[in-house]
Amino acid sequence: MKCRVKWLxxxxxxxxxxxxxxxxxxxxxxxxxxxxxxxxxxxxLLGLGGCTAFDVISILKKSRxxxxxxxVHIEAERREEIPxxxxxxxxxxxxSGKNLKSERVEKAVNLSADKYCSASExxxxxxxxxxxxxxxxxxx
Length: 140
Prior knowledge:
alpha+beta, GMP Synthetase, Chain A, domain 3, three-stranded antiparallel β-sheet, N-terminal domain of TfIIb, three-stranded mixed β-sheet
């Protein structure tokens, strides 16, 4: 896996993935940025959310659960001193579907957290990661 990050101007950068996608990153105005894109540390949390959501949906589909929607809400705290690493991350899943079994959702969330999610494994080396979930039944 390869990627490239190129400085544009001020504190704005464009990240290019090996798969051909681009994303703009920028700093906060007080750090010389112009607020044109996500912050680099936000990108880490977005990557974590994407990685774990991928796992959960994949596991639920394999267990024949009728998933209609999945959202991952992440809250994190960072330490005050530099480097300002994450110290606490909480991941909340909201999984919607028809006839979803809560125990299957719980198992999928736990498997992602404990076995499959590479981002969780890496970030868990420096931060305490917790997770929970809600299941929303779609009636139609």
